[in-house]
Sequence to fold (343 residues):
Amino acid sequence: MKTLLLHENEPNTAEIAAQLLREGKLVALPTETVYGLGADGLNEEAVKNIFLAKGRPQDNPLIIHIAKAEDMVLWCRDIPEAAWLLAERFWPGPLTMVLPVKETVPKRTTANLDTVAVRCPQTKITREIIRLAGRPIAAPSANLSGKPSTTSAGHVLHDYGMDGPLAAIVDAGPCRVGVESTIVDLTGERPRLLRPGGIGPEELKAVLGELEVDKAVTAQISADSVVRAPGMKYKHYAPSAQVIVVEGTREAAAGYIRAHFKENDAVLCFEEELPLYEGYAPTAYGRENDPETLSAGLFAALRKLDRGDIATIYARCPMGGGVAYAVQNRLRKAAGFVCVNAE
Ligand code: AMP
Ligand code: MG
Fold:
């Protein structure tokens, strides 16, 4: 189908996008985390088309997006006080909560789970589109399955073209956060972090008092293991190159990388480090002393380096909490948790 390119600032963008969603079409939507591949979360056929368009395994559940926190009651049951506290503090924003699901949400959206992941995104045009559509919008990241997430309209266009499965792409510029939302599961005995994102674990703990970190965050989950959500066992992004995370001081890391670097390898580093890699054609993805630039730039840099001819990507990865913790998680996952300490 011919894909409409809509801009957030054009009149009628929200009305047009909402109408397409109501018709069961796929619309790529901007959010502060990444661009999502949106469809009517109540329309099984439309949701099925998300999985088909992306090439996403059917047992990997979707996040539903709502226009305001109060709409949680329409799709979730037994909502704990903690969910309202988190919504009050972080919504609209990059936080997804897993809650018990109501019968009102189709099985296809939740991949048959008795829980649903729900989020109220910050990007205004997208909340307006959801409000006008009058239904929850199911949306995974808009990238083709296995590719780095889409953080600009250009990335979405690159993955699907102008004559593919998308009825429209809504362009609101590059994503501010740049990594997918923080996911917290509120259905167990204690709140559990399933995926780090724009809201750091410390911020969640400040509201919740306690937070367990799921083992999928810190280590590779084997394909046959039993996990809280089937989707957690999938490698989210596996570049054709081997990624090696190199930890340690700037100087030690540069020493290690320069000693091991071969033709066809690549360096992914902080802007501050560029002078250390002269002659190695380094790619910087942001500034180490400003982790928000790292999260905003990570996926665009990985997309640039996701070429068949690169053998090894030596990646520098920030330490610390907040959004740096999410950047660290995505890079370690891309590396299959292969990390070396250069010191
Ligand atoms: P993405 O694939 O980028 O859209 O991310 C969606 C993430 O949300 C996946 O990792 C899913 O496994 C996770 N998710 C969605 N629904 C649930 C749920 N009910 N319980 C736990 N995780 C979920
Ligand atoms: Mg994704």
The first strand starts at residue 4 and ends at 7. The chain is about 30% helix and 20% strand.
